[in-house]
Automatic annotation (TrEMBL):
Short name of any one Pfam family annotated for the protein: Cupin_8
JmjC domain span: 115-272
Organism from which the protein derives: Massilia jejuensis
Protein name: Cupin-like domain-containing protein
Alphabetical list of InterPro entries matching this protein: Cupin_8 (IPR041667), JmjC_dom (IPR003347), RmlC-like_jellyroll (IPR014710)
Amino acid sequence: MLPSAEAVAEIDGAAPGAPGDALLASTRPVVLRGLVRDWPFVQAARTSFEAARAYLGRHYRDAAVVAMLGAPDIEGRFFYNDDLSGFNFAPLRVKLDAVLGELAGHYANPAPPAIYVGSTTIDTCLPGFRGDNDVDLGTRDALASIWIGNRTRIAAHYDLPDNLACVAAGRRRFTLFPPQQLENLYIGPLDLTPAGQAISLVDFRRPDLARFPKFEEAMRHALVAELGPGDALFIPSMWWHHIEALDPFNVLVNYWWRQSPAFMDTPTNALMHALMSVRGLPPEQRRAWQELFRHYVFEADDATAAHIPAHARGVLGPLDDEATRLLRAQLLKRMNR
């Protein structure tokens, strides 16, 4: 039997709509019970699924969305096909009202097709929705997205930005792991992914411990939270999270933001470049480059380039928009030669 996950720390009765700067800089997940309980949409969702669907319909302006559709036998788990050469679902570009109607047609179906609209910009598909349904994040420049579906299961993955996930309709169960559990989660391909992020290959509903024995160790470090309409979960950058929607109709609103300047590139690009240029070196050379990365990147501080005059430090000095733009142009020129 797998170890039981520890509950995520909770804040009860959080001030509606205002989580606060200290919490949003946390390095551990936190549940905020009732953070968005006063949203009109949440109130509608607590009345009925149909009331929630009607509320979304009043804001819909004929925009198309990308929906993922899977057969009933995938049991809501959007994943790869059997040999990991593709996926077990099909992406479709459709109107949101058609998706909402399809979901409604399966409320009472015990084995419905898996239907999921993921990471859709709210202001594009539901203009005006955030006028009455929003969270005050202070000065953070956050991307607000909506996620709609039925009983879906989203494999464990990480996101680079910090994430405030607000459950607006239905219930969701989150299982989270700190970044250090990477090797125990059995991550799949980096360059062929269901939705852009690499995912765990472990089926959380039926974990195959013969194939993935170290998953048991991952569960010793797992945190779990079950959220209902009005509750929110703060997920720090790089924490792995598996999400299971538990009702026939579920809506999540989330906010993503980064704690870094906008000119910074995604570290994923650095990882992919290192796979191409460093991983294949002889072991002793890899260790030498490991030391260089340690010195210039992972443990860099004010002393790293203090022996070089400030005007001559180049990329070892502080970077800004202009310096980053020049550096990116140099890298592209070198890669394209």
